[in-house]
Design brief:
This protein is α/β, with parallel strands linked by helices. It has 4 domains: about 15-65 and about 150-250, 3-Layer(aba) Sandwich (Carbamate kinase), CATH 3.40.1160; about 335-465, VC0802-like (2-Layer Sandwich); about 470-615 and about 820-825, NAD(P)-binding Rossmann-like Domain (Rossmann fold), CATH 3.40.50; about 635-805, Dihydrodipicolinate Reductase, domain 2, CATH 3.30.360. The protein is about 40% helix and about 20% strand. The protein contains 29 helices and 30 strands. Strand 18, helix 15 and strand 19 form a beta-alpha-beta unit. The longest helix is centred in the N-terminal third of the chain and has 26 residues, at about 90-115. The two termini are about 35 Å apart.
Length: about 850
């Protein structure tokens, strides 16, 4: 899909591109790192799902990083606690049930996933590990604490690698302690040169590497851990070591949300986040991001550029959250996060310029949530209170400790946006925060609370801060006269209409060229940018991009006359994409296809509007839908639906031959390039079918009688041949007009649908003789007129009349649909897909 637009070469594309494993050829670096969390590997069914994800998404030169299966690490922590708090004489008995459960869980996974022979080998290795575990728990607990915790990842990597070898491709498991070196568990500074060289020695040609997350070693060869959920950090460290292009964190939630979705039901997915914003979210308590996960990817010393993607292993086809370098649209995202169990530490020694060195040392040693030298305080986690007190005691500094919590608004440079800060302050009026502090990186504004952040407060603040942040992408297909006019009107509409505030033009399509830009296309010069940057594309490339677009909603405006493009509607709807169509093909397709489109759109909550398919900008579709929705029942629809035929028969008075009038209309652009398209009545027939379906009638084109005004002898000729023989039309129309005049009437091409007393539908389009007093008899040439009869409008039918064609009115009708659809989407809530966040 990157061929669509050179701008996309700067974008991360989710690595859902390889349907089969490639040949055994290891590249010089990993294209992608895929990390699977504990919930993604919790049981045999989950692991089978992971194997399928690897089959669909990975290549042999990718790297897999794994957490421990399910709750294995929790169980190991429980064993540690039990060993620490149990008398030595009773320890064996106390440990036995826990160890038995642990062994049973691992053996069940092994037996379920592997053949008997391979299972036997892994069970033997497991038995050896359990004996070692017993020994460390009984006699050398303190020294081997981290070695004990490392077993979970070791077993997980070993099992997944064995399953890959059996079912998909050659694989080898790698213990990260064999290559990954840090200084200590507090700072976790990676020795990149040494770690990179050692990892290179463990990657095997032609084998997919499965590496343990969470664990590593220090410079003294001692096992270290990277903290709970540290496997995410392992994945990004490894990506930096091998120069990976992308990192995907496969987890149990389908992305990062504007708040914790377990607490805020209306949280919305953040499809794209700038690196710095994501790092700030992780620092301030986002449940998906490890606090240090982003550090290796945004380290300026690293020469490569890498994107991070968060996706759900439980629903791999759903586009997740992408983290990287983006333009202005992604920088508008806002989110709200919170942390309880914090300590506000105040001291006069923290105030002023003289405190700068001290506060910098505290920042390095204790990673405070926030620091304020003007008011003289820092906020740290409660579990660090004693350490900070002990660290500052030699300096003779008096401290005041207060239990606090924080709630923060996070977004790109939000601390520099007065409107955001003012709105955040208003949203906290009832909470009466102690302080409002801007983070040093300016990506968050933090409120310090005297009470724990409640669910009610979090939901209220989220509502006030995030309610306007919903982003809608707009793709315009068809750049002819009407498309050009639609785009010309767009800048003023975006500034004028509140419902379009967060609408972004992101795609322009012709029949063969496309310009797609996730960061938005400048609406003041879309056509010139299209001319400069558009690339060839095909439907598969288009659908690939549309399947992974980074917006809350996507709207395709179809201004093409193409039947082929209309065949994509079902694909659009199945992806939850909304369609505004001036294109009549889909709405007038055969009954089976039309019903399938309606059902698909309903199933996936896609909105399909097509007011301009009939009557250009006239609100005929809206009127019929409104009557139906209000409880009325349509009994008849009639009118003149063709601007071309309206002009011809309003202008034809017999003084000029019909063929002369027809050729004049062609020259003025009133008819189609081949006037037989208008004279055949097919266009009017399709329009009547569309209106009938909106009114709730189920019928097809074949159910509508259509009078073709072109003689049989001229229907199959070439267009030039037909035009040269257009005079053969004159006698028919002259006679029809003469007959009408003899009755003091006129001729008009009329569409009619009615319901008889037996509920039978009668529908036809034909040339009719009408009294000159008829509502259809005296129109402004090119006008359309629609007459609706219903239970409410029986004696005096509802009439809608006005221009039925023209670039301005049609473009205006499309903009009317666009505002309508954006208003509907403003109130839409997407379901949060969550299996549980670790």
């Amino acid at each position: 899909m990157t061929e669509l637009n050179t701008a996309l070469n700067r974008e991360y594309t989710h690595p859902r591109v390889s349907n089969t494993m490639p040949e055994n050829k290891l590249a010089k670096h990993a294209n992608n790192v895929h990390k699977f969390g504990g919930s993604s590997l919790a049981n045999a069914q989950c692991i089978a799902r992971v194997l399928d994800i690897i089959r669909q998404n990975c290549q042999l030169n990718d790297i897999i990083v794994v957490s421990a299966n399910g709750k294995t690490t929790d169980c190991l922590f429980a064993l540690l606690a039990l060993a620490q708090n149990t008398e030595t004489v009773d320890l064996a008995d106390a440990l036995t049930p826990w160890l038995s459960e642990l062994v049973e869980q691992q053996q069940t996974l092994i037996s379920t996933l592997l053949t008997e022979q391979n299972a036997k080998q892994l069970k033997q290795l497991l038995a050896t590990d359990i004996e070692q575990l017993k020994q460390w728990l009984s006699s050398d607990l303190v020294r081997h604490r981290n070695d004990i915790l490392a077993f979970g990842e070791l077993w997980s990597a070993r099992l997944l690698s064995a399953a890959l070898n059996e079912k998909i491709c050659p694989s080898n498991s790698i213990d990260a302690r064999d290559f990954l070196v840090i200084d200590n568990e507090q700072a976790c500074e990676v020795d990149h040169a040494l770690s990179r060289a050692q990892l290179k020695n463990h990657l095997q040609y032609g084998k997919l590497a499965v590496i343990t997350g969470y664990i590593c070693k220090d410079t003294r060869e001692k096992t270290c851990t990277l903290g709970r959920n540290g496997s995410d950090y392992s994945a990004t460290i490894i990506a930096s070591l091998v120069g990976a292009l992308n990192v995907t964190l496969w987890t149990d939630v389908d992305g990062i949300y504007s708040a914790d979705p377990r607490v805020v039901p209306n949280a919305r997915k953040l499809h794209r986040l700038p690196n710095g914003v994501a790092k700030e979210l992780g620092r301030l308590g986002n449940p998906v991001l490890h606090a240090k996960t982003l550090t290796p990817l945004i380290n300026e010393r690293l020469s490569h550029h890498c994107h991070l993607h968060v996706a759900s292993s439980f629903d791999a086809q759903v586009s997740g959250t992408e983290i990287g370098k983006f333009g202005q649209i992604a920088k508008q995202e806002l989110s709200v996060t919170y942390l309880n169990d914090l300590i506000l530490v105040q001291s006069r020694s923290f105030i002023g310029e003289a405190a700068a060195v001290l506060l910098q040392e505290i920042a390095i040693e204790f990673a405070p949530v926030c620091i304020d030298s003007k008011q003289g305080f820092v906020v740290i986690n409660q579990n660090l209170q004693a350490d900070l007190q002990q660290w500052l005691d030699p300096k003779g500094i008096d401290l005041v400790f207060t239990t606090v919590a924080i709630i923060a608004t996070v977004g790109h440079k939000v601390a520099q946006r007065g409107d955001i800060k003012a709105r955040f302050k208003r949203s906290l009026k009832s909470a009466q925060p102690l302080h409002l502090v801007a983070s040093e990186n300016r990506h968050s504004v933090i409120a310090i609370l005297t009470e724990p952040c409640s669910t009610e407060l979090l939901n209220n603040v989220h509502h006030d801060m995030v309610k306007d942040a919903r982003h809608i992408g707009l793709v315009v297909a068809g750049l002819g006269n009407i498309g050009e006019r639609f785009l010309t009107l767009l800048p003023a509409q975006l500034n004028r209409v509140y419902a379009l505030e967060n609408l972004h033009l992101v795609g322009l399509l012709s029949s063969s060229k496309a310009l797609i830009n996730n960061d938005g296309i400048d609406v003041t010069q879309p056509l010139s940018l299209f001319k400069q940057e558009a690339k060839d594309y095909d439907n598969q490339q288009l659908l690939s991009w549309l399947s992974n677009h980074p917006y809350d909603e996507l709207i395709v405006v179809d201004i093409t006359p193409s039947e082929q493009f209309s065949l994509l509607y079902e694909e659009f709807f199945s992806r939850g994409i909304h369609v505004i169509g001036a294109n009549k093909w889909a709405a007038s397709s055969d009954t089976e296809n039309y019903n399938k489109l309606i059902k698909t759109a309903d199933k996936h909550n896609s909105v399909w509007l097509g007011n301009t398919t009939v009557g250009a900008g006239l609100p005929i579709n809206y009127a019929i839908e409104d009557l139906n929705n209000s409880g009325d029942s349509i009994t008849a629809i009639a009118g003149i639906f063709s601007g071309t035929l309206s002009w011809l028969f309003e202008s034809y008075d017999g003084t000029t031959a019909f063929s002369t009038l027809l050729l004049a209309a062609l020259e003025q652009g009133i008819t189609e390039p081949d006037p037989r398209e208008d004279l055949s009545g097919r266009d009017v027939q399709r329009k009547l079918l569309i209106l009938a379906r909106i009114a709730g009638f189920e019928l097809s084109l074949d159910d509508i009688d259509c009078q073709n005004l072109v003689p049989t002898s001229l229907q199959n000729q070439s267009t030039p041949e037909f035009l040269s023989r257009a005079g053969e039309l004159d006698d028919y129309f002259a006679n029809a007009l003469k007959d009408a005049h003899s009755k003091d009437c006129c001729i008009r091409y009329v569409a009619r649908l009615s319901i008889d007393d037996f509920a039978n539908i009668n529908a036809k389009v034909s040339l009719e003789v009408l009294p000159k007093s008829d509502a259809f008899a005296s129109l402004t040439p090119c006008d359309n007129i629609f007459q609706i009869s219903s239970h409410w409008y029986q004696e005096n039918p509802l009439i809608i009349r006005g221009p039925g064609a023209g670039r301005d009115v049609t473009a205006g009708g499309l903009h009317s649909d666009l505002v309508n659809i954006c208003q509907q989407l403003a109130h839409k809530q997407n379901q949060v897909k969550i299996k549980g966040i670790n």
